Amino acid sequence: MIEISGLRKTYRSRKVSVAAVDGVDLSVGEGEVFGVLGQSGAGKSTLLRCVNMLERPDAGTVSVGGQEMTTLRRRQLRIARQGIGMIHQHFALLSSRTVAGNVAFALEVTGTPRAERRARVAELLELVGLTGRADAYPAQLSGGQKQRVGIARALAARPKVLLSDEATSALDPETTESILRLLLDLNRRLGLTILLITHEMSVVKRICTSAAVMRDGRFVEAGTITDLLRTPGSELARDLFPLDGPTVVDGATVVDVTVSGPEAEEPIIAELARRFASDVRILGGSVETLAATRAGRWRIALPGAPDDNREALEFLRKRGVTS
Q1: Strand partners, 222
Q2: CATH for 2-229?
Q3: For residue 276, how many other CB atoms are within 10 A of its CB?
Q4: Which candidate, 34, 98, 115, 276, has a CA 20 to 30 Å from the CA of 226?
Q5: Per-residue CA distances from 47 to 10, 16, 165 (Å)
Q6: Torsion 46-71-151-90 (CA) sign
Q7: For the chain, counts of helices (H) and of strands (E)
Q8: Could you tell me which residue ranges the ABC transporter domain spans (predicted)?
Q9: Those residues with Cβ within 8 angstroms of residue 101's Cβ, 6 or more apart along the chain or in another chain
Q10: pTM for the complete prediction?
């Protein structure tokens, strides 16, 4: 649904040149929820704005729904953007318009007839849980309600792609959870492809099926959450499942074990102990739900040196669960 190749965007002043996005490749499948994780200044927002051409890249290509965005002229680009909704960190609502008026604004721009606008607005407000608030003004709304208005407005033209620019970073934890539930529900009910940027690992953990870690304009790593959890040395896996417990134990082999999907429900550690009559110690770990996937990560200690545990380690490798 979204294909990016060799994307580069540089900002220049008289004295310096900064590559905000530096040769990024990205592939987001239809119906996927893809999170780009990074700290402020990593290049996340610039990347997102290049997807809908609010920022013109200096090099590379951007394709959305099979349409090459970088080649479109102004009128063609306006039409293409109707298939791409966007929600913002600070809501970007018009204070002089009611909730209904804010949502209708996106339809006015496209020339939608008034009766059709009215029906669509009512449908969208019900979809985002704001029935009964159509005549309220933004100043009368909570932060979560404002973001729901922003989401309704982004969906007005029935886009297949939704871009989220730090949509929950201005919200408290409880409200954040409600907005993430809504986005996940919209993804499943409408088949929306969602590309979101965030600096919060909890957002990635809650709704993303794939993710990338961005630093200094580049992707440090990218892939499905399941694949990254199984990748040795993955930063994302380490941050999603920070492991307590020592990395070295005298007289023992310390192993980090990662499982996902059906394997997360299997008693792998117990089976390991039974099969090899091994006194396995669990030093730390947990099992959690990531989007729709169950995953677990543990740090365990096997008595003896690695040579003494070759069969046990091979057992884990064959199960595809070591990291």
Answers
A1: 212
A2: 3.40.50.300
A3: 14
A4: 276
A5: 11, 20, 10
A6: positive
A7: 11, 13
A8: 2-241
A9: 94
A10: 0.88
> Which residue bears the tokens 């610039």?
46
The predicted pLDDT at position 230 comes to: 79
Report which DSSP code applies to 244: P
Q: Are 56 and 46 in contact (CB under 8 A)?
A: no
Confidence (pLDDT) at 226: 84
Strand duo 210-215 + 218-224: pairing: antiparallel
**Would you give the distance in Å from CA 264 to the centre of its chain?**
22
**Which residue ranges does the chain devote to CATH 3.40.50.300?**
2-229
Please name the fold of domain 243-318: Alpha-Beta Plaits (3.30.70)
- B/e letters for 157-188, b = 16+ CB within 10 Å, e = fewer, are bebbbbbbbbbbeebeeebbebbbebbbebbe
Q: Which residues in the chain show pLDDT less than 70?
A: 292, 320, 322-323
Q: What is the DSSP letter of 28?
A: E
SS3 call for 194: strand
Check residue 323 and give its pLDDT.
59
- Residue 6: which of 217, 244, 322 has the closest Cα? 217
Strand stretches in 109-169, DSSP E: 161-165
| Cβ atoms 297, 276 nearer than 8 A | no
Using a 10 angstrom Cβ sphere, with 0-12 exposed, 13-18 middle and 19 or more buried, the burial of residue 116 is exposed
Here the tokens at position 252 are: 């023992």
Identity of the amino acid at 74: R
